[in-house]
Design a protein that fits this description.
By secondary structure, this protein is of the alpha/beta class. The protein folds into 2 domains: about 100 residues, Rhodanese-like domain (Oxidized Rhodanese, domain 1); about 260 residues, 4-Layer Sandwich (Metallo-beta-lactamase, Chain A). The chain is about 25% helix and about 25% strand. It contains 11 helices and 18 strands. Strands 6-7-8-9-10-11-12 form a 7-stranded mixed sheet. A 6-stranded mixed sheet has the order 13-14-15-16-17-18. The protein has a 5-stranded parallel sheet with strand order 1-5-4-2-3. It is globular.
Length: about 375
């Protein structure tokens, strides 16, 4: 008997639609505790695969008889075995998640954010399994992608379906938590790749520098370059048609960016405070903030997108309301989660100084993003 399977895209759609789901995660407990599938109506339990080799008796009483059961593991093989065991025990609707958590980490869900006043649309690509957010700005048949993930085939399929000509690839900073696909996709599409020069001292490939005040045109839309250091020394934001503020890893919905991933926490904390408490303060409250990451499912809007007006964040985001400079310095240099997996190797890859194989790249990125201050 072969277990029924479900793709990560199909499962993600259920999560975005807030369906009630019961998930059995068969990975080791430490991996589960570090990172798992989240959603508003998800019940999830963990039982390592090796505990179920002789049957499902250890968890049988925890499994719902009237609900569909979805089993996930690291890569998809162990979950098939466990799903078969559950079916043999008399449970009818049991599915193994194809590709496991590795595939879950790589799925990008495109969500329309809104129309642009100069004609065009912004789409947010939600990497639900890792918390990464990237963007496609489309105007008059031309496209620009911001903070591209390494799974460039998913962007290629999307723009091909819509007959978009990709012209511009931009990174808000040199990423440390995931491998950028910006340069690779730019070369493949014959497009221009842009990167902040202050983050590019060790970059070994050619790029177009992003300088404060520059304006980049895609179709009828204008992307204004707004220097916003703090997460990195080169961190740069983009203001699109005076409606949207793409903040990279400087400002999130419920938190702010950490300044320590290049070992410069004490050096960059002043830049971070200046960006958040002065430079962003000069911008219009009505700008819709589009960050490069989210930390929790609770930051999502009803449709699964992640966004909020800048003025609202100044009233609700704790990181924007720390009165004391000393307290701010302590918060962003001491109140930090563990650093991302393989972040030094990821930075070297994004500099062009390393070229790991695809499986190694997948292993380097496994786990949640950790770009925010707690």
């Amino acid at each position: 008997m072969s277990a029924k399977t479900i793709t990560v895209k199909e499962l993600a759609n259920k999560v975005f639609n807030h369906e009630e789901l019961f998930i059995l995660d068969a990975r080791n407990t430490d991996a589960f505790d570090d990172w798992k599938i989240e959603g508003r109506n998800i019940e999830i339990i963990n039982s390592p695969y090796f505990e179920l080799l002789e049957g499902i008796d250890p968890i049988k009483e925890k499994l719902p008889k009237e609900k569909t059961i979805y089993v996930i593991c690291a890569k998809g093989a162990s979950s098939e075995f466990v799903a078969e065991q559950i079916e043999e025990a008399g449970f009818k609707d049991v599915y193994s998640v194809e590709g496991g958590m590795k595939a879950w980490s790589e799925h990008l869900e495109p969500i329309k954010i809104g129309d642009l006043k100069n004609g065009g649309t912004i789409y947010q690509f939600v990497r639900i399994g890792k918390g990464c957010l990237s963007y496609l700005i489309e105007s008059n048949g031309e496209g620009a992608i911001v903070d591209t993930n390494r799974m460039i085939d998913q962007y290629e399929s999307f723009i091909k379906e819509r007959s978009i000509s990709l012209k511009i690839l931009l990174d808000t900073h040199l990423h440390a938590d995931h491998i950028s696909g910006g340069k690779k996709l730019a070369d493949k599409a014959g497009a221009q790749y842009y990167l902040p020069p202050k983050d590019a001292d060790e970059v070994i490939f050619e790029y177009n520098p992003l300088e404060d005040g520059d304006q980049i045109t895609v179709g009828s839309s204008v992307i204004k370059v707004f220097y916003s250091p703090g997460h990195t020394i080169g961190s740069t934001s983009f203001i699109v048609d005076d409606e949207y503020l793409m903040t990279g890893d400087i400002l999130f919905i419920d938190s702010i960016g950490r300044p320590d991933l290049a070992g410069k926490a004490q050096d960059w904390v002043g830049d971070l405070r200046n960006t958040l408490y002065q430079r962003y303060k000069e911008l219009a409250d009505k700008l819709i903030v589009l960050p490069a990451h989210f930390m929790s499912i609770e930051e999502m809007n009803e449709n699964g997108s992640v966004s909020e007006k800048l003025g609202v964040l100044y009233s609700k985001n704790h990181g924007l309301n720390i009165k004391s400079e000393n307290e701010f310095r302590e918060t962003v240099s001491e109140n930090l989660p563990p650093q991302p997996n393989s972040y030094e190797d990821i930075r070297k890859t994004n500099m062009g100084k390393a070229d790991p194989g695809i499986e190694e790249q997948r292993e380097m990125e496994i786990g949640p993003n950790r770009c925010a201050v707690r």
